[in-house]
Design goal:
This protein is 36% helix and 22% strand. It is an alpha/beta fold. The chain has four domains: 149 residues, Alpha-D-Glucose-1,6-Bisphosphate, subunit A, domain 3 (Alpha-D-Glucose-1,6-Bisphosphate, Chain A, domain 3), CATH 3.40.120; 100 residues, Alpha-D-Glucose-1,6-Bisphosphate, subunit A, domain 3 (Alpha-D-Glucose-1,6-Bisphosphate, Chain A, domain 3); 106 residues, Alpha-D-Glucose-1,6-Bisphosphate, subunit A, domain 3 (Alpha-D-Glucose-1,6-Bisphosphate, Chain A, domain 3, 3-Layer(aba) Sandwich); 81 residues, Alpha-D-phosphohexomutase, C-terminal domain (TATA-Binding Protein, 2-Layer Sandwich), CATH 3.30.310. Strands 1, 2, 3, 4, 5, 6 and 7 form a seven-stranded mixed sheet that branches. Strands 17, 18, 19, 20, 21 and 22 form a six-stranded antiparallel sheet that branches. InterPro entries: A-D-PHexomutase_a/b/a-I, A-D-PHexomutase_a/b/a-I/II/III, A-D-PHexomutase_a/b/a-II, A-D-PHexomutase_a/b/a-III, A-D-PHexomutase_C, A-D-PHexomutase_C_sf, Alpha-D-phosphohexomutase_SF. Pfam families: PGM_PMM_I (PF02878), PGM_PMM_II (PF02879), PGM_PMM_III (PF02880), PGM_PMM_IV (PF00408).
Amino acid sequence: MSADLSQLVKAYDVRGVVPDQWDESLAELFGAAFVQVTGASALVTGHDMRPSSPGLSAAFARGAAARGVDVTEIGLCSTDQLYYASGAFGLPGAMFTASHNPAKYNGIKMCRAGAAPVGQDTGLAEIRQLVESWLDSGVPEVSGPTGTITQRDTLEDYAAHLRGLVDLTSIRPLKVVVDAGNGMGGHTVPTVFAGLPLTLVPMYFELDGTFPNHEANPLDPANIVDLQARVRVEGADLGIAFDGDADRCFVVDENGDPVSPSAITALVASRELARNGGTGVVIHNLITSWSVPEVVKENGGTPVRTRVGHSFIKAEMAKAGAIFGGEHSAHYYFKDFWNADTGMLAALHVLAALGGQDGTLSALVAQYDRYVGSGEINSTVDDQQARLAAIRAAYENQTDLTLDELDGLTVSSADWWFNVRPSNTEPLLRLNTEARDEATMGKVRDEVLGIIRG
């Protein structure tokens, strides 16, 4: 097929509409290119429940095997289950998923051995260049035998590995509602939660890549309305929602109220620090709450602030030898999980923390939720840099403020902060702000939006 790879190859992965933007013939080329760039002699593949995923994954495996590489197919899995296989087997991996995107999309998340990410700066640009050249000239022949393609089920091993990283032995019985959004959580949750003293109320566990109930994107408040209502009706202790490939988890308390990912980051950080003797580095991106570095310091740890994006988090995790990292988008990274992100492990931490005491989840997380945040507000703009310059000009001469440009523009005072970041893929500016009280937050938010939207 003819393909515009500039629209298909993103900063961290491959993602586009099937079959309009890519198909199995292109997936085969990606398999061959992945082998050449990584130098793999063997690799592992997995896929989600989208209708196009099995065919794309099989084509990738064929492209890799044709170049002499042995492929282990683990089949239906969550993205963090693929990372588990990459780490446990010491193999590069490829996961076929478009995460929370609508059904017509699919993609590839690639990693080197040990779940090390492959992004634009770590091999993805070279993979794209090879595929583009082969679209014109064809894939060059290689000598030697074709590699093997074998199947292996890793679900039980993945579940056992996760349960070995959290002490769940003394938790009290809990009633938990889980909304899998017809995504891969419906495949992994029953096995991971098996044997725990939980009354599990499943929602949308049927694997269906057409997402008949709602988009598998719990970051959008509209997609957790069903979960919130069910928690209240059931009188459950908490609710958990997973995205389409089940690598992110979102939590609601016993009242059905959302628990911010920053509060979950702070909660898990305190537990991981305790597990590591009250010491260690914790990574957080620059739009997580002030409460995260505060809690890390209170528990003996060292907080390190990074840019937004999993490639930056994972790179900093490795560089700093960090024990844990968290993002506002509900990605949670663990040293003991090859620095990769796993929402399932974060969910087990929440269950262990809640089940290890007698109080409610809302009371438990109150200590980690200290400030008032706006959430992320997106605005379409004609000129991102001009708007950023206007914001900088409005604040840079105020003596009680600090400005930094680690990622977009962050402006901080003693009582509030805001960050404005340009989208890499759309003509958008993304605003996040936080303050010590609701009135201050609203004032700062509206002031900055007034500049952004002119």
